[in-house]
Amino acid sequence: MSKPKPLRKAVLPVAGLGTRFLPATKAMPKEMLPVVDRPLIQYAIDEAREAGIEEFCLITGRGKDSLIDYFDIAYELEDTLRERNKIDCLKALEPSSIEAGSLIAVRQQEPLGLGHAIWCARSFIGDDPFAILLPDDIVQAASGKGCLKQLADAYNETGGSVVAVTEVPREQTNRYGILDTGKDDGRLVEVKGLVEKPKPEDAPSNLSIIGRYVLTPEVMPYLSKLEKGAGGEVQLTDAMAKTIGQVPFHGLRYEGTRYDCGNKLGFLEAQVAFALERPDLADGVKEFLKKYTDKI
């Protein structure tokens, strides 16, 4: 097998309305909601950088301009912090800095599904492999490697598309894209087919795709047809399924814990889990958790 093209691009779909977090998301993108002291979008960018990503494309919608502003230089703020010798605050801003020209934004005018959002990035993607990160999903690394770095390593092994997968209760398969599986070594599983949100009785397995993908450009011609699938939307899962047999396709059982920050309970759990990882917060968090567990 020839060496696959380097993975350097990432697409981050951030056009959603965030209705599950109203009223907080009435005037701010849900991707700017903080887990401890970093917004969701920052966790996704940090994970992508660790995987070697150098170019980023945000698929935005109306009212999402603050996502672009977040990665801009805040001259007045930084000057004020320097004048006041707030070195720790300046250091805290460093992750929100992105090299000039490496971040672009594309507007998705209508909410026509994840497949449509990725199609909107077609000029950015070109003929290159690309990663997709859904900022709603935060993965707390367990092995020292972030989820996307693990996917990038698997892509370099297989030379084809790789998606992060996890087992879900069978009664929940109608919420996710589900794998029809082939060979399975416990880490990498061959993908023979993909089904978007199947009924539990129709699901070929209980292996679900989470919000991390590495895809080859062969998926783009299928997305360009803008064929509607489940829910009347253009489904990325449907287009990926059509590339099976054309390119290698695997699911990766990643190492780490995924938090679905697209719902309130997952978001609250992520707050606690990430705070407990922080030396400056862990002891205090443990203390107040004891107070609340006494009430259960």
TrEMBL record:
One of its GO terms (molecular function) is UTP:glucose-1-phosphate uridylyltransferase activity. It catalyses: alpha-D-glucose 1-phosphate + UTP + H(+) = UDP-alpha-D-glucose + diphosphate. The keyword Nucleotidyltransferase applies. InterPro entries: GalU_uridylyltTrfase_bac/arc, NTP_transferase_dom, Nucleotide-diphossugar_trans. One of its GO terms (biological process) is UDP-alpha-D-glucose metabolic process. Keywords: Nucleotidyltransferase, Transferase. Pfam families: NTP_transferase (PF00483). Belongs to the UDPGP type 2 family. NCBIfam families: galU (TIGR01099). PANTHER family: UTP--GLUCOSE-1-PHOSPHATE URIDYLYLTRANSFERASE. This is UTP--glucose-1-phosphate uridylyltransferase. It comes from Acetobacter pasteurianus (Acetobacter turbidans). The lineage of its organism: Bacteria, Pseudomonadati, Pseudomonadota, Alphaproteobacteria, Acetobacterales. The gene is ugp2.
